[in-house]
Design a protein that fits this description.
Elements: H1 3-17, H2 38-48, E1 54-59, H3 64-74, E2 86-92, E3 99-107, E4 115-116, E5 119-120, E6 124-129, E7 135-141, H4 152-155, H5 182-203
Antiparallel strand pairs: 1-2, 2-3, 3-6, 4-5, 6-7
């Protein structure tokens, strides 16, 4: 079953289920809780899918076996909240018909604790995946490090990548790091790959 047909069935199930439709949901307990409100969260989602007129929420829950599978694939342990990821399905209804645009997720990768101008440096990565299962757009939110890490010159290198591609960052790799933040550059790339894999597990998508 293709990624698009799987997601279209998911959208239909979300709408018919009713409870998953986003109206004014409380902040998620994991990554999105740091954004403070649905208005802020929606604004961030709009940056990832600017053509979307609505976003539908789907929360998953991984079994211990799935967690073990994911950790083996990604090479690191999941945060407790990552066992219950929240996906945001972007749709466009401007034509009067619901058109599936893709899926977004927010990931907070492990960054080495450090202070910058009195604030703890964190990376909140928003990743959008299109109907083909490829990275559509990557955006960083609330990042206080090098601005170069947040700009298209770096982030757009991830656009179009799928799980079959390498996400390794380096001066001799396809993905070039930000000069003064090579570790953070790799963390952002890792977050994009994690998003793709979590969606694969949650949607039952092979390949």
């Amino acid at each position: 079953m293709g990624y698009l047909s799987t997601m279209m069935r998911l959208v239909a199930g979300t709408v018919l289920g009713g409870a998953l439709l986003l109206a004014e949901p409380p902040p998620a307990q994991a990554h999105l809780a740091t954004f403070g409100s649905w208005e802020i969260t929606r604004g961030y989602l709009q940056e990832i899918f600017p053509d979307a007129t609505d976003f539908l929420r789907r929360r998953d829950s991984y079994t211990d076996a799935e967690v073990a599978q994911i950790e083996a694939e990604l090479g690191f342990e999941l945060y407790p909240e990552d066992r219950n990821p929240e996906f945001y399905i972007a749709v466009d209804e401007s034509s009067g018909k619901r058109r599936f645009l893709g899926v977004a997720i927010f990931i907070d990768p492990r960054v080495e604790s450090r202070l910058l101008e009195g604030n703890v440096v964190r990376i909140e990565v928003g990743i959008g995946v299109d109907a083909r299962g490829r990275v559509k757009r990557v955006r960083l939110f609330d990042y206080r490090g090098s601005r170069a890490l947040t700009r298209p010159a770096f982030l757009d290198q991830l656009v179009g990548l799928s799980l079959g591609d390498s996400f390794e960052v380096g001066s001799d790799k396809a993905i070039k790091p930000v000069d003064d933040e090579p570790v953070e550059s790799q963390l952002v790339a890792n977050a994009a790959r994690e998003a793709l894999y979590l969606m694969k597990v949650s949607l039952g998508q092979g390949g």
